[in-house]
Every structure is written in C-alpha cells, then in structure tokens.
Amino acid sequence: MSRITAVAFDLDNTLCRPDHDVEALYRRAFERAGVEPFGEPDVLWAALDGPPDPDDRVGYLGAGFARLAAQHGRDVDPVALAEAFETVADDSRVTYLPGAQEALSAAAEVGPVGLLTNGPESRQRAKVDALGLGDRVDAIVYAGDLPRRKPHAEPFDRLATALSVAPEETLYVGNSLAYDVAGAHNAGLQSAWLRADPDEAAAPYSPDHVVDSLDGVTALLTARRDAERNA
Question: What is the pLDDT of residues 40-75, one digit of tens each?
Fold first, then answer.
C-alpha cells in the first residue's frame, strides 16, 4: 500500500459546479445575440465534443450551437451565439459539490493540498476566489497557461514540485479518466477517479481508487491516515 503524503484535486465537476440558472443564462445568450431561441441547454451540452478547450471556448461552444442549429433547421451565426453566451456567463458563479469541503479538510490532515485545473488563470481564478480555495490549498497549477495541459505530465510535475512531495506519494482526485487519471498515471501520481455514474466502468484505464462521491474521498483519506498512524 503506497503512502499518501499529499492530496491534489481537479476543480470543475470535482470540487465545484456552476451555480447559474442555466435556463435563464441560455435565454439571455440568445437575447444578447438577437436570435429567436431554439433548443434546450441539455441538448446543447450533449452536442459539445469532449471537455472545453481552454484556448478556444467560443469555438468549442460555437460547434455545439452549429450542431443544434442544424438539428432545428435554423440559419444563424453559431460563433455569435457562443460569444453572447460567454459574455453573459459569470465564472464566479460556482458552488462546492456535496462533500467537497470535508474532502479538503481530510486532505489537509494528510499533508499539503494542491489544485490542478486545465483552465487558464484568467478564467479559473474567479472560481478559486469565489470558493475561498486560496486559503485552503498550498499550491495551484493553472495548466491552461502551460505549453502542455492534462493528460501531459508537465502540469502534474509542477504540482508535485510546488507541494515538495514525491509524485508517487501524491494522490490526485479528478472526474475525468482521459485527463485526470491518465495524466496522473503519466506523471507517476496515484489517482482517485470520481465517477458520476456508479455503473460506469474505468476500463481501459486503471485508477488506483474509484469513488462515487467526495464523501468517498474523505473516507479513503481518513482510513489511510488511521492505518498509517496505527502501523
């Protein structure tokens, strides 16, 4: 059983989620673009391709709006709609996921606590400040400002260096197999996959731990801490 002497977390959909009235935000975007609304937010999210591109969020959203417009037979400028959506969105409107603050406290009992997000500081800092995470973590890496993001090893290497802990003794908690689990593996960190669906399989990836909630992270860290103290 490998030791855990530091814990780090992903941000979006791991520690926090947006706290917007999504329906109202969606309608305001159409209003700002001067376009008669069509479709629904859930259908737009389903039309998006993978996680957001930190370098081109407008292009990422625009592709979703283009697919949605085609489904509804609408002739619109999808980029203008995406730009309007970005304008009315407020990155500071976030809330902790259930169990997040308890997991952060449990992590602090283990050792240094880190935060590694694939977004750039220009977007993610508003979330960090709104959640008060600056006072709860010892190091933050904004991979969106680096030459390589997750799942490349570079952001994880920087995180381990900032925490002054060996990578193999650092546990990284994230909700994405392809970015969080794969990236932690590539950099030699332990991984805990926070899965959204209890029936979802981890294969072909091999996370060190699988948890279905942040309460599971707290339980994992508490059990590991108690076992090491009693060893």
Answer: 999 999 999 877 777 788 999 999 999 999 999 999
In a domain, 101, yes or no: yes
Give pLDDT, residue 40: 94
- Contact in structure between 165 and 138 (CB atoms under 8 Å): no
Tell me the whole-structure pTM to 2 decimals: 0.85
> 174-200: per-residue pLDDT in tens?
999 999 999 999 999 999 999 999 899
75 contacts 191 by C-beta, under 8 angstroms: no
Q: For the packed helices 78-88 and 22-33, what is the interaxial angle rounded to 10 degrees? A: 130
Nearest by Cα to 123 from 195, 26, 55, 177: 55
Q: What is the DSSP letter of 12?
A: B
Long-range CB contacts for residues 166-170, cutoff 8 Å, separation at least 24: 166/5, 168/2, 169/2, 169/3, 169/4, 169/5, 169/6, 170/4, 170/5, 170/6, 170/7, 170/8, 170/114
Together in a domain, 49 and 120:
no
Average pLDDT over residues 128-150: 96
**Where do we find the tokens 């546990």?**
171
Domain that holds residue 162: 6-17+94-230
Specify which residues 12 forms β-bridges with.
16
Segment holding 205, helix H or strand E: none
